[in-house]
Amino acid sequence: MTLKGRRAIVTGSNSGIGLGIARELAKAGAEVVLNSFTDSAEDHALAEDLSAETGSAVRYIKADLSKCEEARALVEAAGGCDILVNNAGIQHVAKVEEFPTAKWDAIIAINLSSAFHTTAMALPVMKERGWGRVINVSSAHGLTASPFKSAYIAAKHGLVGLTKTVALEVAGQGITANAICPGYVLTPLVEAQIPDQMKAHGMDRETVIREVMLDRQPSKEFATVEEIGGTAVFLCSDAARQITGTTLSVDGGWTAL
């Protein structure tokens, strides 16, 4: 398939899952807007390198998605979009009674509220064109829970609910809204955690991955950023035009348990 002529915004996309999705969309021919809260030479060089690699136009726009006005300004600065991927997210782990208020507010703002603001700005252009794809990157934790992650889990569950509401509001207008729910994905951030986990548990790399990090993932394999990106490209395809208001789990069987 081709996404030539389509513009995609991918939030939180200068590394990890977001960058993997952006790369696959660009490989499919979409013009891509990368985003994060920084505005460094490396950010813009990343966009240039991705453009050279894929042959698609790629640019970088800074926006701090903890601020509603910047989330909305991102879509405006991009000139609207045909494909919106809400991927930005942060995490903090603590008991509910010890959870810092500032961390709760930041996680809800970045992981959930920013998706509302970008979607609200993107939909008018999608409606005008009669075509659009809203893809929210939720999590296996958008469908189930774990202790000590109250803000993250609340936000990811909320993102699934937002997805369903948007899908119902735009049904029949050529626009779909879906949530991808990854389990553990092998990103640079996760890769960096492996040596510490090996030391903490006194295990070799393969054992700590299988028995600690992937304890809840029955496949005992990480998903890859390429697989998440490929899922996003599929959701943009004509084959997926009747898939809307739902979740696609890419979690090695985690939520089947």
How would you describe this protein?
The structure is a single chain. The chain has 257 residues and is an alpha/beta fold. It folds into 2 domains: 7-185 and 223-252, 3-Layer(aba) Sandwich (Rossmann fold); 186-221. The chain is built from 8 helices and 7 strands; from the N terminus they run βαβαβαβαβαβαααβ. The chain has helices spanning 16-27, 41-54, 68-78, 101-129, 150-170, 188-201, 205-213, 225-236, and strands spanning 7-10, 31-36, 58-62, 83-86, 132-137, 175-182, 247-250. The protein has a 7-stranded parallel β-sheet with strand order 3-2-1-4-5-6-7, with helices on both faces. β1 (7-10), α1 (16-27) and β2 (31-36) form a beta-alpha-beta unit. α1 packs across α8. The model has no long low-confidence stretch (mean pLDDT 97). Its EC number is 1.1.1.30.
Rg (C-alpha, Å): 18 Å
- Cα-to-Cα separation, first versus last residue: 34 Å
| CATH domain class of the largest domain | Alpha Beta
Average pLDDT figure: 97
CATH architecture of the largest domain: 3-Layer(aba) Sandwich
Shape, principal axes of CA atoms: globular
Portion of residues in beta strands equals: 5-15%
Q: Please, what is the CATH homologous superfamily of the largest domain?
A: NAD(P)-binding Rossmann-like Domain
Q: State the helical fraction.
A: 40-55%
* Low-pLDDT regions: none
- Structural class by sheet pairing and helices: alpha/beta
- Please tally the β strands and state the result: 7
Question: What does the largest sheet look like?
Answer: 7 strands, parallel
Q: What is the H/E order?
A: EHEHEHEHEHEHHHE
> In order across it, which strands form the biggest sheet?
3-2-1-4-5-6-7
According to CATH, what is the topology of the largest domain? Rossmann fold
Number of helices: 8
Overall tally of structural domains: 2
